[in-house]
Structure formats: C-alpha cells, structure tokens
Amino acid sequence: MPEFPEMENYRRLLSKHIVNLPITGVTINREKSINVEPEVFVERLAGARIVFVERRGKHLVFHLNDGRRLLLHLMLGGLLFYGTEEERPDRSTQVEIAFGDRILYFMGLRLGYLHLLSVKETEAALAKLGPELLDRRMNEERFADLLKGRRGALKSLLVNQQVLAGIGNCYADEIAFEAALLPSAPVQGLTPDSITRLYAAVRKVLSEAADIGGYMEMPFMAGDTVTGSYNDRCKVYDREGETCERCRGTIVKSELSSRKVFYCPDCQHEH
C-alpha cells in the first residue's frame, strides 16, 4: 500500500505537471471508485482546474478552483500515471482525467477511491488522522507526548493512522530498524533514549524515501527515473534471509497482529 513517501512523491510530481491546467475530459470506467453519479462527476470536473495538491497521511487532496476537493486514497495496489494515450501502461484504469493531450490515469483502484467532496466533507473524512510527522510543528517533545500512555507493540503504534499519519507496513519496519528497535518492542517500555532514536529514525527514513520516490513499482510518467528508487534501499522490508547490512546477522520474517514484519534479531532490541 502506498505510504507517506509514495504519496509525497506523487504530490510533488503532480504539483509540477497539472496545477492550473484546465480539465478537458473525464472518463469513469468503474463507478465504485467515485462517490457520485458518473454524469455528475464528469459535469462538475469539466473545465475545472486543480489549483493545489495537498497530501494528508496516505491521502492526496486535489483542491479545485471552485472550492471543492477530490480526495484520493490508493489503498492496496493503486497507482498513478500521467501521459499521453500512447505512453500509458497496459493496465486497466478506473478513472481518467484529461488535461489536453495528457491524461492522469488512476489504476488499481479496486479498494481505493477518488471522491468529489466539499471542504467540510473533506475535513470530516480526514478528521481522525493523527499528526503529520514531518510537519514543521512536530518536534521530539510532541512526538514523545503522542507515545505517552500508549500500550502494545511498536509496529502496531507506527501503523495506527489515528496516532501517526502516513506510515504503513514497509516504513514501520524500516523505521524500527533505523532506531535499532524490534517491531514487537512494547511502546510502554521505551526509554527516553529509545524515543529519541525513534523520532530521528522517523524523520530520516520518511524524508529520504520521499526524496528518492518511495517504492512504487511503476514510473509516474515517461522519463521518470525517480519514482520507485527506494525499492533497492530497504534495509529489512521484504529482505527475509538476507544479510543485515549493519551487523551481518540474518533478516527474519514473522507475524505481528496479523501483519508481516521484517527485522534483524541480532541488532534490534526492545529499548
């Protein structure tokens, strides 16, 4: 599932390429991916412009010039591609938004969605999300406050969108590794030093992954050599049986609260 780095990479690319361009056409191939009648969706977007692209957690919010919003959640398997009909990948699309001869293709939205909402509806849909971890208002003290009184495993906390927005399976494991903490480490047992390491790991892993395009499997557009570059940078995620680059131990895979976890049992600890 696309997480903070993947969606932030998309936000940056979309901001460069589609902002203030008039929407010249809309195609709906799967009605369940949207929240209004297709005719209404098409009519309300025709001629509109996207004036700002915002990311909130794992969501993208497209701000339209008439004040409405498009709320995107790619969920599991969702992808974006921007280009001409000739450049598009050979994959089914659920929604297509055209900007002249270039089209923004929404693919893999079997569980994801693109909803047309008012400002209030958008705010309500995102109201339960926790804070943004790379927001300028976030600091180590605020981060530590978020952890106070929390119980359970570290990974379960990291992927809880109501506590911390934007982290999923992959980056939870990568952050735990960077902080030298086990994904199963009890949150209530973390020492002040552990929390300091964890906060530094969150900032380092998320910012570095976003800057090199996350781990998406497909380029955003023709000539895009950035998107997906983090695929080869993961230290533990999907690396079962490989050698730990930090201590030369062996990466293992197990399960925690029905989620797969990857970690090094030799250099990751409970605090």
Task: Kindly describe this structure.
With 271 residues, the protein is α+β, with helices and mostly antiparallel strands. It has two domains: 4-126, Alpha-Beta Barrel (N-terminal domain of MutM-like DNA repair proteins); 140-263, Orthogonal Bundle (Helicase, Ruva Protein, domain 3), CATH 1.10.8. It is built from seven helices and ten strands. It has helices spanning 4-17, 38-45, 119-126, 140-147, 154-158, 169-178, 192-211, and strands at 25-28, 50-56, 59-64, 69-73, 79-83, 93-99, 102-107, 113-117, 252-256, 259-263. The strands form three sheets. It has a four-stranded antiparallel beta sheet. A four-stranded antiparallel beta sheet has the order 2-3-4-8, with helices on both faces. Strands 9-10 form a two-stranded antiparallel ribbon. The longest helix is centred in the C-terminal third of the chain and has 20 residues, at 192-211. It is globular and about 55 Å long. Its EC number is 3.2.2.23, 4.2.99.18. Its cofactor is Zn(2+). Belongs to the FPG family. One of its GO terms (molecular function) is double-stranded DNA binding. This is Formamidopyrimidine-DNA glycosylase.
Number of E strands: 10
Task: State the helix count.
Answer: 7
CATH class type of the largest domain: Mainly Alpha
The arrangement of helices and strands along the chain is HEHEEEEEEEHHHHHEE
Estimate the global geometry from the Cα principal axes: globular
Rg of Cα set: 20 Å
Strand order of the largest sheet: 1-6-7-5
Structural domains: how many: 2
Please outline the major beta sheet: 4 strands, antiparallel
What would you call the structural class?
alpha+beta
**Architecture of the largest domain, according to CATH?**
Orthogonal Bundle
Low-pLDDT regions: none
Helix content: 25-40%
CATH topology of the largest domain: Helicase, Ruva Protein, domain 3
Distance from N terminus to C terminus (CA atoms, Å) equals 28 Å
Beta-strand percentage? 15-25%
What is the typical, i.e. mean, pLDDT?
A: 96
